[in-house]
Amino acid sequence: MYYNRVLIDTIEREKSEKAFVSTVEDKKVLSDMLLEINHIFGKDFHYFAELDVFYIKGAGNIVRKYIELFPSEVPKAVLLRQMYLDKINECDKLILELYLSFRKKRDSFLVDQDNILAYVSVCYDNAFWKMKSKRIQNSLFELLKEPLDAYFLPLTMEMLTRKIPDLMQGILINYIKNPVSSERINSRIKRGLRNDYIDEQIKYNSIDSLKHIMSDEAIAILEEIILTGEKKYKDLAQKSYKCIRKKMKQQ
């Protein structure tokens, strides 16, 4: 396996506890898990950084055995990919449960932990997007009604819009028409991001996802943005509008 300069630097940062923030207990669980993985698959891994880069085909069930033993959120996030790429049994339900557990702790992340919050959220968003699981789509649909989940799970939002456009239309149009209140954001999380930035990103992602909905209402909303909306949204609305029209012609 090739260890490029970036990976080598990340391993050094992990050694000095500047990357992959974890506790003594996390490191103990990692050591036990890698002892088993290395023995069975002939590897010589020792760090979270390696697991973040390399996929070990067939190790998903070993990861499943250990993942809930990690007390910290970053180690769990690192390991999600190993499980869904291996398509282990009921992986979708387990990852949803892990996300819901992380979600309960999300409010406690402080400004200086924004990088951790972003990393963990991206890992879950990628997992839901890659799995495209029908079994958990109703749960994800309910989650996306909460602005912070819509903000942190943009790929999931687009994936669900492709799969259940009739249901997602209402959520997307609501986010486009109604700004998320500062009170609602501040009451759920302590973060350094401006509230208007969070609202802008949710609206932007909603306009983008709307391209998968072939309905008169979706077209009307996009036309309104193109004609009278804020400049920062007009180009994206135009792209989504053209995408819908093209799909309609192909039907």
Q: Globular, elongated, flat, extended or rod-shaped: what is the shape?
A: elongated
Helical region count? Answer: 15
Q: Beta-sheet strand percentage?
A: under 5%
Largest sheet: none
Helix content: over 70%
Radius of gyration: 20 Å
SSE series:
HHHHHHHHHHHHHHH
| Mean pLDDT across residues | 91
Low-confidence spans: none
Number of strands: 0
- Kindly report how far apart the N and C termini lie: 47 Å
**What is the structural class?**
mainly alpha
Task: Please tell me about this protein's structure.
The structure is a single chain. By secondary structure, the protein is mainly α. It has a domain at 1-89. Helix content is 71%, strand content 0%. The protein is built from 15 helices and no strands. Helix 14 (216-228) packs antiparallel against helix 15 (231-250).
Helix and strand topology:
Elements: H1 5-15, H2 24-41, H3 48-53, H4 60-67, H5 73-86, H6 91-105, H7 114-131, H8 137-143, H9 147-152, H10 154-163, H11 165-177, H12 182-186, H13 195-209, H14 216-228, H15 231-250
How would you summarize this macromolecular structure in one to three sentences?
The chain has helices at residues 5-15, 24-41, 48-53, 60-67, 73-86, 91-105, 114-131, 137-143, 147-152, 154-163, 165-177, 182-186, 195-209, 216-228, 231-250. With 251 residues, it is an all-alpha fold. The protein is elongated and about 60 Å long.
